Each structure stands twice: as structure tokens, then as C-alpha cells.
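Appendix B: a complete holo record

For completeness, this appendix reproduces one full record from the ligand-bound portion of the collection. The bound molecule is S-adenosylmethionine. The inputs are the chain sequence and the ligand SMILES; the output is the full three-dimensional arrangement of the complex, encoded as C-alpha cells. No fields have been trimmed.
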Amino acid sequence: MRRVAPALKRPGARVLDICCGTGDLVLALQRSSGGPVLGSDFCHPMLLAAREKVGRRSAAAALFESDALQLPVRDGSLDLLTVAFGFRNLANYAAGLAEMRRVLRPGGMAAILEFTQPPNAAFAAVYHFYSRRILPWIGGALSGSRDAYTYLPESVRKFPRAPELAEDMRRAGFSDVEFEYFTGGIVALHLGRVG
Ligand SMILES: C[S@@+](CC[C@H](N)C(=O)[O-])C[C@H]1O[C@@H](n2cnc3c(N)ncnc32)[C@H](O)[C@@H]1O
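The structure of the chain with S-adenosylmethionine bound, as generated:
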């Protein structure tokens, strides 16, 4: 929250969390924001679960069903757009960034929290061994679905590395782009502003 506070704490800030899933980040943003927070996802059952959770705890949050590549939101109307662990699943990253850029107003900020590949080669080797060999085995044994636990490391492997995603954001028109690794580089937070 600290990193997005400049946009989040603006008086009357308009905030949207896309690919919101069951709404945890919507609730966290709502706790820190002065104004209402919107959440969107294209998966109806996810939104129903989010509505149940968010509705119980916050009257000021609103949820709607939408593809992140075609948001029903006016050009230049948001102060902050966030996406946590959803951007990697988009069918077209350039189109996703262009849509994020379109809905943010001048001075607005985009924040992308996503799994990435650790920059440290030794740690990356251990992590890759764990995520490709051990995680699918444990996940498959516990859940009965090995595929779900194979998809995660495979999709992370195909996803642009953090410096490449930062470059993609610049190409999409974001300025002051920066990123920070978390959890040994397994996760990265990218921030970009609209000038
Ligand atoms: C791993 S979940 C993350 C949910 C939530 N952001 C969180 O951090 O708990 C990914 C979510 O992205 C949504 N999603 C994936 N592609 C999408 C798209 N093109 N448009 C809207 N939602 C999408 C999925 O329906 C799912 O709810």
C-alpha cells in the first residue's frame, strides 16, 4: 500500500483493481483509500465470492464483470489501477497495458504485482527445481489435479522477466516505470505513471 499511497490517498481517488478474484486486494485498498474502490474480473463465480466477502465488510466497494482487455471505463478517469497475480493470465500483454494506460488519468498510476523469475541465478535454479518438480507432485497428490500446479511454473517461465515487463510498460506509454522484487525475486511489483 505504501508504494501506491500517492495515488490511493488523493482526495476522491478513483481506484480499480482488475482481475480481482475473490476481492482481497479490493478490501485492502478500501481500508487505505479515502474514496470508493472498484473491482473487476471476467469470472462470474469469482465475482460472486468477492461480492459475498466484500459486501460483508465494505459498503464503499463496487464490483463488476469485465474482461481486463476491454474495460467499461472512460478514458483518463482513474487515479490508480492495480492487478495482482492476474496480468500473467491475459491473452495479450501489450493490449492489457494499453487498456490500463487508456483508463488512467494524467498523474495516475498502474501497479502490477506478479510472479516472476528470480534474478539471482543460484536461487532461480533451486526455485525452478522446486516449482517444476516438487510443487506439481505435492499439489497433485493433495488436490488430485497435477495440471493446475504445472500451469503456474510454466506460465511464469513464459512471462516476461521483470526488466522486460518494465520495458513493455514504457513502450505502452507509462513514465517513471520502476519495479521491486519481493520474496527472493519470486514476485515483482511494477509501478508506472501516466504523464
Ligand atoms: C490468480 S487470480 C488472482 C486474484 C486476485 N487478484 C488475488 O490476488 O487474489 C487471477 C484472476 O484473474 C482473472 N482473470 C484472468 N484473465 C482475466 C481477464 N482477461 N479479464 C478479467 N479477469 C481475468 C481470473 O478470473 C482470476 O480471478
